[in-house]
Description:
Elements: H1 2-13, E1 21-26, E2 31-34, H2 36-44, H3 56-62, H4 69-76, E3 82-90, E4 93-105, E5 111-120, H5 122-145, E6 147-153, E7 158-161, H6 163-168, H7 180-186, H8 192-205, E8 209-217, E9 221-233, E10 239-248, H9 250-290, H10 297-327, E11 335-338, H11 339-349, H12 351-357, E12 360-364, E13 370-373, H13 375-391, E14 400-407, E15 411-418, H14 427-433, H15 450-460, E16 464-470, E17 474-482
Parallel strand pairs: 12-14
Antiparallel strand pairs: 1-2, 1-5, 3-4, 4-5, 6-7, 6-10, 8-9, 9-10, 11-13, 14-15, 15-17, 16-17
Helix pairs in contact: 9-10, 11-13, 13-15
Amino acid sequence: MKQKQVLIHNKVEIVEDREDIVWAMDENYKLTAFNSCFKSLLKKEGIGKAERGMDLKKVYSSGFFFSPCEQGCERALKRYATTSKHTFEDNGKIVVHEFSFQPFMNSSGEVVGCCIWQKDISKEIDNNHRLRDSERKYREAQEVADVGHWNWDMQKDEITWSDQLYRIFGQDPETFHAHYGSLMEIIHPEDREIFDDDVKKCINQRVVHDIVHRIVVHQGEIRYVHQKGRAFYDMDGRPYRMSGTTQDVTKDVLSRHQIMEQNHELQNFVRIISHNLRGPISNLLMLSKIYEWGKDEVNDDIVRKIENTTEALDQTIKDLHLSLSLKSADKEKFRNVPLKDVMKDVDGLLSEEILKNKASIQTDFAKADLVFGAKSYVVNIFYNIILNAINYAKQDVPAEIQIKAEKTEKSVVLSFTDNGIGMDLTPEKERKIFDMYGRLSGATEGKGFGLYLVKTQVEAMDGTIEVESKKDVGTTFRIIFPNNTVTSS
């Protein structure tokens, strides 16, 4: 019996430095060995001091932490090793413990006792719950965004798809084996070459795989997907896998196509209407020129009103043509535009206005001196914003205009700040400012077409424009252009 106890004791001693609770007993439920955690637990539960030879049946029936032990030990003594999980409440917290019951046998194969290993697995359970919850949220996010994740093992030519990707590509995860060849069969025949070229470019040039292409699913249904990914390389620089995302962008692409078609139809409509109006407008203007003024005061008044209305209509048609021409800008002709050259042109165009109104203009192009686009557009943008600041200056207070250019990695930001009358700007007013014939106020003359042209020309160069204004303080226009300036070699 002493040899048996030494055997069990040595087994328990191995795990003395662990936080798990470990103890052993003989076939008569007498405690034969234990670690310090077992000793502390008995003390915590008020059972008493742990001593070899104490009767564990009384211990098992006295504390809730030991309640699973009686049945587990009974099975272990019958040669059945068992493991079970049990949930307890400890100081208001829910904890989960795993109990492992292992029989000990002598050289003759007789059971001489068992060892009990009690382990707190609350953190593991909680981590598993968190992991499953994260996976659930990840799946839900993929479903909402209609995007899935993929991984391509190049060496095995195996592609792993998330659940959402099987839905996007219209495939059954039980029967479809994803590899490069099977993926190419789903891609629209007309898009396969460009897709394959983009993948090769990603791998060979180490650039991002980024492409929108068509796929054919089910019974010939065509979908548009946006693929993004990158390649990974081993220590020797050899590519071994690619990973990325695929998003179903069918609705966006079709909506964009529809908008483009509608815009094209609208432009054609405007051109046709304006062309048909040009003849009658020209005739009316010509008739007003040959009319004999001064013979009849009433007729003079009527003809003058007709002439004014016709000239306004003629200008509106010209404005529409100008707007359409700006929206169809030829970006192939865009170049680096030096801002100092732009200011020279604007100073010449506005010299009389600046002098007459005693306006002052300060520029700071130290951080950015170039924008990428059409110089005529940039000149017009500066011209209209500066003229706007002069026109909306406070009474008897000369306009002070500060123009500043800054550059980030992705953009060039121009800001035009004045000390004018300003306004209490609401989102609705901000929108109307940039509408065709929208105006800041009715206090000055003009049609309000200038800021519409500014916004149109900014957007033609892929930029955006924002405005901030405060009544009696001033207004700031902020224009953000992409940083597409070309560095000369």
